[in-house]
Automatic annotation (TrEMBL):
Residues 394-439 form the SpoVR-like C-terminal domain. Residues 3-377 form the SpoVR protein-like N-terminal domain. InterPro entries: Spore_V_R (IPR007390), SpoVR-like_C (IPR057008), SpoVR_N (IPR056174). Transmembrane segments: none annotated. Coiled coil: none annotated. This is Stage V sporulation protein R. It comes from Duganella radicis.
Length: 462
């Protein structure tokens, strides 16, 4: 039985078991193409030097045996799944079942559904069209000009407000002020006296922007940067749209990978049409996918989302039911999933803990309390993994003031990296930019950058 026949029978079995999903297009691709997809995030995406650095990093990890990519799957209608052509038949059988589980999750989950409604189900085609437009912009405006805009947009990629709509209009214009009352008879006579100057009404002042702290930095710069050209604005909005597309993948990673792992295991177990030897080989691959990163001799300092998600879903289904799991699948993201369904008993069984890495290189277990464990898992997911930075104000001269809520983040910024991002932003804002933040010690810092890329840093006790 070849892979096409196996795929058809697995899809039929999935339908019998109640899985409901968008159509899935499967494609076998060579290893180098799979690596590029994993690094760029899309088969065809806008070119930028930062992706080259990610490619080298991924290549080194792969050569050192720390990373192996079985498949890359893109949500949409249809979903698109790319599998390695040098995977064994048993491995691609498991991958096919895994992708079917992903497709079921994507159609059920409210967060994915919301972003699908906003962005549509054809992100790969849209990404390829944007890449083509960017190539045309390079020809018209030059490599350096395009790179300058991309540097800023990609540096701010996670700084979106996912509570807002993808296609969000500018701030509404303020209501017109009421017509001023006509002066009374006394005031008219007073103004007519000799030597009294005519009162010239003050001109309208520019309204205060933003009307409230604005977390969607990409959107704000695209709409309010004083000298941004249309093609530059298009780049910011394109990066923002792709950030919206990837957000559910980020926010539901543990749930999604766990759900797909649960269903690939169940589909393989109930696929009595599979040759016995292929089933055993696929089962060994399953064990590699859902095992924790550590082992009996060594503790893992990172969570395997496949392992954790798979264990929680099995626990939910065993304690409650598959229907209860499907309801959770539809309603939750990782924040609710971990807080509501990772129990203290399961965390103890999985040997989960939070830890502290000290400056001297020593790493120690800090807590096994379930609340601490949950927050340690979810900490990197807050705010798309980015620091909480908002636009505080835009002055009359269009100087931009940003503020980092480091108390909410629980950490300061690495100032060297922050200064570089500020340079990127100032080059497209084309006016002075100020950021109020804190360093890793919690000392309040103010970074101010001029149009000439000169950074001034001041500090005061937090």
């Amino acid at each position: 039985m070849n892979l096409d026949d196996t795929t058809a029978r697995l899809l039929a079995l999935a339908a019998e078991l109640g899985l409901d999903h968008y159509p899935v297009d499967f494609e076998l691709v060579p290893q180098n193409f799979m690596l590029e997809i994993a690094v760029y995030g899309m088969p065809v995406r806008m070119h930028h030097w930062s992706f080259g650095l990610r490619y080298i990093h991924q290549l080194l990890h792969q050569h050192m045996g720390h990373s192996r990519i079985f498949e890359v799957m893109f949500p949409g209608d249809p979903c698109r799944a790319f599998m390695m052509d040098n995977n064994s038949l048993a491995e691609n059988t498991l991958v096919t079942a895994h992708v079917i589980g992903h497709a079921d999750f994507i159609k059920r989950n409210a967060l994915f559904s919301r972003f699908m409604r906003m962005a549509g189900g054809h992100i790969l085609e849209q990404s390829a069209a944007r890449a083509h437009s960017l190539d045309q912009a390079r020809l018209r405006h030059g490599q350096r000009a395009v790179e300058t805009v991309l540097d800023a947009a990609l540096a701010l990629e996670p700084h979106i407000d996912i509570q807002q709509a993808l296609y969000r209009p500018p701030y509404p214009e303020p209501a017109e002020t009421a017509t001023p009352p006509q002066p009374d008879v006394f005031r008219q006579r007073y103004r007519s006296l000799p030597g009294e100057p005519d009162l010239v009404p003050a001109g309208p002042r520019r309204r205060h922007l933003p009307p409230r702290p604005e977390a969607d930095l990409l959107w704000f710069i695209a709409h309010y940067a004083p000298e941004l050209k249309d093609w530059e604005r298009d780049i910011f909005l394109a990066v923002r749209e792709e950030a919206f597309y990837f957000y559910p993948v980020h926010a539901c990673q543990i749930m999604n990978e766990g759900w797909a792992s649960y269903w690939h295991a169940r589909l393989l177990r109930e696929a009595d049409f599979l040759p016995h030897e292929r089933y055993l080989q696929a089962l060994r691959a399953h064990s590699d996918v859902v095992r924790p990163y550590g082992n009996e001799q060594q503790m893992a300092l990172a969570i395997n989302p496949y392992h954790l998600g798979f264990a929680i879903w099995e626990d939910i289904i065993e304690r409650d039911s598959l229907e209860s799991a499907r309801r959770i699948c539809a309603e939750e993201d990782d924040f609710g999933f971990i807080r509501n369904h990772l129990s203290a008993k399961l965390a103890e069984k999985l040997d989960l803990f939070s830890y502290q890495a000290r400056a001297d290189g020593d790493t120690r277990v800090s807590s096994r309390d379930i609340h601490d464990v949950r927050e340690a898992i979810l900490g990197p997911k807050y705010n798309y993994g980015a620091p909480c930075i908002t636009v505080e104000s835009m002055s009359d001269d269009f100087s931009l003031v940003l503020r980092h809520d480091h108390q909410r983040d629980g950490r300061g910024l690495a100032l060297v990296q922050a200064e570089q991002v500020m340079r990127y932003v100032a080059r497209v804002w084309r006016r002075p930019v100020t950021l109020h933040t804190a360093d890793f010690r919690g000392t309040a810092r103010t970074l101010h950058i001029t149009q000439q890329d000169v950074v001034h840093t001041s500090a005061r006790p937090a």
